[in-house]
Amino acid sequence: MSNSLKERKTLKLSLYASGAFVALALLFALLTHSESILFDGVYSMISFSMALLTLKVAKLVERPDDDVFHFGYTAIEPTLNLFKSLIIIATCLYAVFSAINRLLTGGNTALYGLATIYGFISTAGCFWVSWIMYRRSKNYHSDLVKVDAKTWLVDGVLSVAILLGFMTAWWLDGSQWSHWSKIVDPLILIVLGLSALPIPFKVMLYSLKEVIHKAPTSGIVEEIKAQLTRSLKDVEYDAIEVRVSKRGRGLYLLAHIVVSDEFNISSVEDLDDIRENSHAMLEKLYENITIDLVFVSNPEYAE
Fold this sequence. Notes:
mainly alpha
């Protein structure tokens, strides 16, 4: 089975799991009258909608370049991840402000015993799906699957907060401090919203860098330059100027090679052989890399 088929199979797992959690959360929200469970359901519904888009994008990014997208469809991947992170951030902020307003009006009651059962089911399910997706994303280097794994991890963290909060509220409900149980649900919602923010915020920044064509991390650039240098060991040159752009799973390398006076190539075919050798070596590092090697004698053209 090819990596693209494995990727789509994994994304379908995320889709089916999201649908199941939406139904579960909305059912328990109705039964328990808990706004924090309702928020968890809305969060899962967003994940479900994004999973549908992600499946479509996973097919698009496999397409070669054409007359519409001259550099292929890989730019759609970070664009989707950016859009997904912004939606999640907006949802979390809305939930926090809504919970603060609920606290100021006295809080609300919920059936915390039943809510605790939901907390156990949700926590176990979210961490299980996240673990599967993270493990598979490492096998075929998919940013789409990796971001989905992080989304499920956020879901798991939210579910832990829900579970602990409901267990506390359940205990308070049967104690002499039962009047405090009314503020537990909005407090849980505030914790959920704030604890969910860091991961989508990081995804937003990472995706934005790719959308605006910012160079990848220095480690990636140096690794590519080192491998390119090894591939050019038989070429006489004075300097190499490397420019790298990463868009989703795709990497683009533009290298200007300032040849020396000893550079002796008799035909374009010889240059093609150099390019082919360099591409073959760089593919060992990054499967989806596109390279352009430009040979110049004037150093100014490499700037």
